[in-house]
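hiii so my PI (J.) wants the whole complex modelled not just the main chain, which honestly fair. so below is everything: three entries, each one labled with what it is. i double checked the lines twice but i was tired so who knows lol
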Amino acid sequence: MRKFTFILMALFMGTIAKAQNDYTKSLNGIQWVKIDSKTDIVVKTHSANELLIKSGPEVKTPDRAKGLKLVGEGGTDNTNVGFSVVQDGNTLIVYNLRKNKGAEIYLPASQNIAVKSTWNGDIEIEGFSGEIEADAQLNGSIKLMDVNGPVTANSLNGALEVVFGKVTQSSPISLYSTNGAVDVSLPSNTPANLALSTLNGNVYTDFDVQADDKDGLKSVLGRNINTSINGGGVKISMKSTNGNMYLRKK
Amino acid sequence: METLSDEMIMQKVSEGNLDLLKELFDRHHKHVYNFLYKMSGDHMLAEDLTQDVFYKLIKYRNSYNNGSFLSWMFTIARNSLKTHYTRNHKPHDNIEVLSYKAVEEENDVSENNAHLQYALSQLDPYDRELVILNRYREIKYDDLAEIMGSTPGAVKTRVCRILKKLKNIYLESI
Amino acid sequence: MEKNHVFDQIPDYLDGNLNKSAKTAFEKHIHQCADCQKEMEEMKMLFNLFEEEVPTPSSRLRAKFESALEQEKTNQGRVVQMSGKKSSNWTGSALKIAASIALLVAAFQMGSLFQQRKVSDDIAQLQEETNQMKQTAMLSLMENQSASKRIQGVNYIEEFEQPDEAIIQALANRLLYDENDNVRMTAFEALANFSSSETVKNAFIEALGQEKNPSIQVAIIQALVQIQEKKAAEPMKKLLEKEDTQPFIKNQIRAVLPSIT
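here's the output for the full assembly
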């Protein structure tokens, strides 16, 4: 039976079929889900109001560890999939204890989520309409697909790529990277006030924007562009200190 | 009730138990009044502004963020005073007016007090606030730093210096 | 011994803020030193002056406070009642309304004496109220759980031409203590427009000593160099010595350090 599950999982990664070693928890009364991981993390949507962690191919527990629990910086494995899940008030804290394997996490599309990668993990988030905070603190990249915002994302060395659906106008969007490229796609009719800035990189866009550097006066903070598109709207600020910036019409 | 801290009471107030504000009024209205009186040298004004401070406590109770209650209250008091002076286009440190007012208006005030008021009026407004607030024992250096937007260490050194200056002005004036 | 005057400890001693050993040392010195003794006597006299009872506020203050409180309570009560049970106690609420009208009248009569000078201020008052509301909104947004909302709070700074110290301080706290890098960066950008303020300068210098995000580090360095802040040299040198400081930050510091030292 175990072997069967193993093969099934490997073949149908990402299908909704619930495998034996998946972990679920109800999200009643939860406003924020915070995910903390050293390795790759993929967050997708599903229709149930619960947290679902798929750990991919079955976790191999060393024979010696039989009957023991995995313990990591974030706590003890209380899920049997290598995660520690703790509720703190209206926040659910999900901590990936394993150091070398990615995981897929499923949440309802309207959930507010905050994902942090502390080592090499890449963050990939797809299809959410709630608020998103993503922080790749070291080498990881961030990829947010088909999101609505508000988004707050920051990466150090990895690239930051965001593809927006219709942009929520309620609260600002902030996308920063120190050494990585910032690559953002917006529907062409998005009303917004844009603030783009880079120190050592270049800005490329097919939106109609102009750098407001005065003739011959080089701005101290590198290149700064402030402009509104489609009559102005929610504030979107993007900044890359050393990388290039790409702003595309979708 | 005695055992509840200001912060705990204010917390309950912001949750809707308005009656508890009376306790905070009892505990602090004299301090606020005194602060405003010493700052302005004007009874009527001090009373109006004290009232204003407590109105604001009622009105903005939901914005109380669980920090030090004294800091919050005195920050409101400072703002009210500042607003009053900007609104009336009077410079904050109109020395002559303030000191004469203090001396002339107060028939019932001891001579010592008038001299103290005079000495206070000789200080910079910032220093004056600092030293007056410092003389309320409940306000610790941490609170004071928070109210004045500085660090406890810097505030402490400064207070020490102003006290000395104030004392010398006072001794010269009598 | 005489050289080690204890002037600076006098206020703490009088307020009872010295710990036991400091207190003993203080008392020992004061016994031998006439200068300090004199200083202490004078300071004590000054402290006593502050303690002297100044005239207390009139009872009008308490009356007006209590009537304002009652009024607020009835406002609050009405909201509760509307959403509450249908079978409300009619006589009870009628009494409440009557009572609040009585209080209003009383408050008005007491207030009318002082009404005159207030009238001309009404418009200014309104303006002020709006500012106060904005300030309150801004400060409370900055405490929100959501990073985006905190950024929104920080961005409110554009609404104020001359933000007062409380706002500047709240922004400085965001720059220094917010866990989210984007919020700290936004707070920095907001504060950079007020870099002539001492509070802002000090916050920048403090932030440079503890900030881990290189993008924010380099932005702070540039702002401090632009205003030629000499005190920035120390934290910059420290960053040069640190192993985990990014190379481009070190290059930047090496390039600008001569211009401020």
